[in-house]
């Protein structure tokens, strides 16, 4: 009997060493203290058969074993439980720190910066110009007649104060820059413009334009064409063709609407370009002599070209964004893709 008690002790030590989680420890507890088949109750049961004179020493040994098993089992159970609270994975102090989330550039900002980069390389200066304007800078100096339909309430946001308005295009910067600096001049101006339009897939009452213009001696339409071709190819791809169609703007003469090969079918014809192979992307022309006179530049000595380019549309084309609203909603799920 004493041998069996000793053996139960060593069995327990081995079982305890192998049990390292709460479930395994529970099983050990059942194996030794379980009422039906537990090893300790079974030994106590056998105490009856022990001869009287040995009862005392065997009983003592059995009590000692029971107390030892109970206390070591309790101790290990508590220890495993506290480890679990701290987290079973050890702390890896060599892991790199988690960085704070970084912002992304807006698609319009990406296109604007690319455009600025291209024109800065060509020697242009940047001049944003004001969004709140007077009639003179937005219309009059640009040769709009007083009854020109573009001035109409339907197109222009007029402010209540001082006959101010929100500029309807970035061409106001032509006048402002030419007033401030003497030619030769090369300026690129990017910014917001406003028109009283309904919001649709392709139109928004607030949108973005880039205005480029150059004034120097002997400037002709070939300079305009070469400049446009350069920047279109750099912005959208060297394989794209470009064409100019006669058009009309009060502040340029002659004026031209500019198309480039459809970026989606590369000129073959698809749904987006209505199977023409072309997309209209900007308005341009040679600065009207009257506009130069309005800012005190002699049109017999100087000439220049100008163009206006829609940045929203460029971003939509470049990143295949079908709805202009996407550019103004600031949905993080969209912005994070850029
Ligand atoms: N300002 C014109 C527009 O908004 C575009 C343009 C700019 C045309 C410069 C010619 C020259 O439609």
Radius of gyration, rounded? 42 Å
What is the fourth-level CATH superfamily of the largest domain?
A: Bira Bifunctional Protein, Domain 2
Give the neighbour order of strands across the main sheet. Answer: 1-4-5-9-8-7-6
Span of the ends, CA to CA: 80 Å
Secondary-structure class:
alpha+beta
* Number of DSSP helical runs: 12
**Per CATH, which architecture of the largest domain?**
2-Layer Sandwich
Kindly identify the CATH topology of the largest domain: BirA Bifunctional Protein, domain 2
Keywords, separated by commas or semicolons:
19% strand, BirA Bifunctional Protein, domain 2, 2 domains, 338 residues, alpha+beta, two-stranded antiparallel sheet, 12 helices, rod-shaped, binds phenylalanine
Condensed summary:
The protein is α+β, with helices and mostly antiparallel strands and 338 residues long.
Question: What do these coordinates show?
Answer:
- 41% of the residues lie in helices and 19% in strands.
- The chain has twelve helices and nine strands.
- The model has no long low-confidence stretch (mean pLDDT 93).
- The structure holds phenylalanine (PHE).
- Residues 169, 171, 211, 249, 252, 283-285, 306-308 line the site of phenylalanine (PHE).
């Amino acid at each position: 009997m004493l041998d069996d008690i000793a053996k139960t002790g060593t069995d327990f030590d081995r079982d305890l060493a192998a049990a390292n989680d709460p479930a395994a420890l529970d099983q050990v507890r059942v194996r030794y203290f379980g009422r039906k088949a537990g090893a300790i109750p079974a030994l106590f049961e056998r105490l009856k058969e022990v001869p009287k004179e040995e009862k005392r020493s065997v009983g003592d040994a059995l009590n000692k074993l029971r107390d030892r098993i109970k206390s070591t089992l309790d101790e290990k159970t508590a220890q495993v439980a506290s480890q679990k609270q701290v987290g079973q994975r050890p702390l890896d102090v060599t892991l790199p720190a988690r960085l704070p989330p970084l912002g992304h550039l807006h698609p319009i900002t990406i296109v604007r910066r690319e455009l600025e980069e291209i024109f800065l390389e060509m020697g242009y200066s940047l001049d944003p110009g004001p969004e709140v304007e007077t009639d003179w800078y937005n219309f009059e100096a640009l040769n709009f007649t007083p009854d020109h339909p573009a001035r109409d309430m339907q197109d222009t946001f007029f402010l209540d104060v001082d006959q101010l308005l929100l500029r309807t295009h970035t061409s106001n910067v032509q006048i402002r820059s030419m007033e401030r600096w003497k030619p030769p001049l090369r300026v690129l101006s990017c910014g917001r413009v406003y028109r009283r339009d309904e919001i649709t897939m392709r139109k928004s009452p607030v949108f973005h334009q880039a205005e480029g213009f150059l004034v120097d001696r002997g400037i002709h339409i070939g300079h305009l064409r070469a400049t446009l071709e350069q920047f279109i190819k750099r912005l959208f791809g060297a394989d794209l063709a470009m064409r100019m169609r006669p058009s009309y703007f009060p502040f340029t003469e002659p004026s031209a609407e500019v198309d480039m090969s459809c970026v989606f079918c590369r000129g073959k014809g698809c749904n987006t370009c209505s199977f023409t192979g072309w997309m209209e992307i900007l308005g341009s022309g040679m600065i009207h002599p009257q506009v130069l006179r309005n800012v005190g530049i002699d049109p017999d000595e100087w000439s220049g070209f100008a163009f206006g380019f829609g940045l929203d549309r460029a971003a939509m084309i470049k990143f295949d964004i079908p709805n202009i609203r996407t550019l103004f909603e600031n949905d993080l799920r969209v912005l994070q893709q850029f």
